Write a sequence for this structure.
């Protein structure tokens, strides 16, 4: 959508529901301020406190929502590192992404509160790759060098130490497959209530 | 030997603290005797929250979140202690018994919020959560929908409870 038609849409909404429209503009503005100096796609919004810092790169595709809460979300990209988040995802409060090399998160991801992803710890290291449509539930810790396949679900409080095949449901510490989520490789995610445009 | 006299202003400090606690908890349907609140307690979304006597919220580090969605109920018993960063989210009902301690950053939910199969943004059905009297829930623990934490049991730090935690029952 071009910026001109987006502006027209917002003006229409300003007429229909002023409070909602102003809130939405504030959320878009908050994300612009939080991620100033980084690559941010259209419609990236933040409803709370987000901190993005470091000399590395952060690339956010269109429509990512950062939900605010009791603890700020932090994205830290060290020298030469890159954090990529695909389009249409949702990141809850207290999430901490720390990249020394690279963290890649696919499209339509759900990162719940207090998720921690780091690609270097205790002398180990390696880029972390998280596929499309992955749901990391509350408090999940993803260890360095791990690849999580598309459509997977990681249960709350798990620690992911090994690669996760696509479409699986894992839980525990270390996270192990509990049962294969039937046909979950590509869930239909048409209705995204926070993305009304 | 005479007891150290309490300065008169200490009573005023106590009174102000008590009024402040009541003010923070003003959205609760019921608040028992002598609630103690430090820091911020967020009560969201218009469900009913009932507190027993002598409930302590120690949110001096991180806020505490009580999320009762419309029609849902959070019932907290007497002498409960809740530490900072705890979030209790109820779509239907979360019941916490007398003398329970919830450690910092622990999460009590009665709904998974996202469906595993199909549309991720469809909300699955809720299952009521009960934490029985005297249980201790450790820091960063997650209590899942439908869980029953048995009376007097201890839930370890950073663990999860999905059903009745019979294995952790004290002898």
């Amino acid at each position: 959508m071009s910026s001109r038609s987006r502006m027209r849409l917002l003006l229409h909404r300003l007429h229909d529901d002023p409070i909602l429209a102003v809130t939405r503009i504030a959320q878009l503005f908050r994300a612009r301020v939080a991620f100033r100096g980084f690559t941010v796609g259209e419609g990236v919004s933040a409803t709370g406190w987000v901190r993005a810092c470091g000399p590395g790169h952060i690339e956010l595709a269109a429509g990512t929502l950062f939900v605010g809460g009791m603890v700020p979300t932090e994205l830290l990209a060290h020298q030469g590192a890159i954090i990529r988040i695909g389009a249409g995802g949702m990141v809850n409060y207290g999430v901490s992404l720390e990249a020394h090399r690279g963290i890649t998160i696919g499209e339509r991801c759900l990162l719940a509160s207090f998720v921690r992803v780091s690609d270097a710890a205790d002398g180990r290291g390696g880029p972390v790759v998280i596929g499309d449509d992955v749901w990391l539930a509350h408090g999940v810790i993803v260890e360095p060098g791990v690849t999580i396949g598309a459509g997977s679900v990681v249960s709350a409080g798990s620690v992911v130490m090994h690669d996760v095949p696509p479409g699986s449901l894992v839980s525990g510490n270390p996270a192990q497959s509990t049962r294969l989520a039937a046909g979950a490789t590509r869930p239909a995610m048409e209705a995204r209530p926070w993305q009304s445009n | 030997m005479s007891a150290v006299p309490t300065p008169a202003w200490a009573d005023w400090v106590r009174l102000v603290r008590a009024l402040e606690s009541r003010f923070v908890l003003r959205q609760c349907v019921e608040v028992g005797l002598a609630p103690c609140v430090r820091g911020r307690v967020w009560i969201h979304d218009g469900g009913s929250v009932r507190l027993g006597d002598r409930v302590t919220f120690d949110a001096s580090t991180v806020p505490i979140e009580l999320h009762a969605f419309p029609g849902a109920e959070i019932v907290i018993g007497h002498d409960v202690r809740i530490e900072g960063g705890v979030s209790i989210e109820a779509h239907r009902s979360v019941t916490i018994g007398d003398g329970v301690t919830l450690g910092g950053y622990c999460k009590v939910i009665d709904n998974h919020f996202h469906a595993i199969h199909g549309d991720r943004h469809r909300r699955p059905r809720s299952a009521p959560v009960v934490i029985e009297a005297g249980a201790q829930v450790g820091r960063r623990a997650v209590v899942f929908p439908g869980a029953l934490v048995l009376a007097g049991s201890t839930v370890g730090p950073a663990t999860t409870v999905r059903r009745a935690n019979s294995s952790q029952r004290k002898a």
Notes: Residues 183-197 of chain A have pLDDT under 50 and may be disordered.
